Amino acid sequence: MLSVVIPLFNEEANVPILQAELRAALAGIEHEIVFVDDGSRDATRARIDRADTPTARVRVLAFAKNTGQSAAMYAGLQAARGEVAVLLDGDLQNDPADIPRLLATLKETGADLVCGYRARRKDTVVKRLTSRIANFVRSRFVGDGVRDTGCTLKAMRRECVSALVPFAGMHRFIPALIKGAGFRLVELPVNHRPRQHGVSKYGLGNRAVRATMDMFGVRWLLSRQIRYEVNEEEKSASGNVD
Q1: What is the rounded CA–CA span in Å between residue 50 and residue 142?
Q2: Dist CA 233 CA 235 (whole Å)
Q3: What is the rounded average pLDDT of the residues 36-56?
Q4: Which of 66, 155, 226, 229 lies at a CB distance of 3.0 to 4.6 Å from 102, suitable for a disulfide?
Q5: In CATH, what number is assigned to the domain containing residue 63?
Q6: Distance CA 218, CA 225 (A)
Q7: Position 238 in a domain
Q8: Would 241 be classed as within a structural domain?
Q9: How many domains, the chain?
Q10: Is residue 236 in a domain?
């Protein structure tokens, strides 16, 4: 089964559209949708259609207060029951129609993680420029080799979730943490759409300093990883160790 994890914060106008697009994109695929409401202050949760179908189940996790995108993603991934988990933004800028392509790439390449990257971003010039610089610096500093870590759309095998460390800002370093744990990742160009409803939750001021601090922390963490191999010795019939 597939799990689609979607963090939400004040997306009341987008949720009905998103669910209709998911139904179309995942028709015939057994899946669950795990919505994680990050303390929305509007009618986001009330707008979620919770009706299950023969191939789809809808689950809703609700935070008591706004805790952040990383917390919502981590909680959703921990709760996911599928063999493969897909991360998707709730603001309609990611296209659910790309999910089957992510799944096909995961299967065809044998990779553990497929990272979408926005080939044609529908953002302002300033946002695209600052993101490009940040991605360039981050990719080389932590060694993940990913060109667009800001693209939420990703598909990963269940085992990858064990590599994630819960901290504020984790969502920017998912590829680095998973690759650092020995898993293999590939990239895939995906569609990107302009925001139709609501407002962006991020700006240059609330990202630059925090992301830089997180980058140093993740690099330190990766440098301190413990790697080992274990060979279990078996006893022979006489009780001696072979």
Answers
A1: 40
A2: 7
A3: 96
A4: 155
A5: 3.90.550.10
A6: 11
A7: no
A8: no
A9: 1
A10: no
